[in-house]
Amino acid sequence: MGMRRTIKASELVFLEKYENESPKTTLSMKDCVTTFSETSVGNSVVVVSNIHSIWDKIVGTDTSQHAKVRHVRNGVLYISVDHPAWSTQLKYMQSRIISEISKALPDEEITSIHMSVKRS
Predict the structure, then answer these.
(1) Which of 3, 21, 58, 82 has the most CB atoms within 10 Å of its CB?
(2) Which residues contact 41 (CB under 8 A, 6 or more apart)?
(3) How many whole angstroms separate alpha carbon 20 and alpha carbon 16?
């Protein structure tokens, strides 16, 4: 067994004082969630989650299986599709998609859609 070192009472008092005077580095779960939701990344996650909840109704079940909402940045909705044909399909639906999102989620300002092909 290794040698144990006994910490003097004066050192313990110093360490306790140092710890109490140091800025806190931990946040409560509530503070973490609040901080996250106030950032642009957090806002994007909330917006995407809201859009996911209505995505099937907006584009239809068939299309939603091939077109996934990825993120939102500066009013642009980023979608990945698994084939270029789905990108073309969504281009024809773009104004309707934006309109439906605006109706269902009036606080979300989606002004355009960007699509990219990501094959699995």
Answers:
(1) 58
(2) none
(3) 6
Using CA atoms, how far apart are residues 93 and 103, in angstroms rounded to an integer?
15
Per domain, the residue ranges of the chain are 10-117
Tens-place pLDDT, residues 70-90: 888 888 999 999 999 999 999
Which pTM does this prediction carry?
0.64
Options 3.90.1690, 1.10.287, 1.10.1660, 3.30.300; CATH for 10-117 is: 3.30.300
Strand (E) positions, the chain?
67-73, 76-81, 112-117
Cα–chain center distance at 64:
19
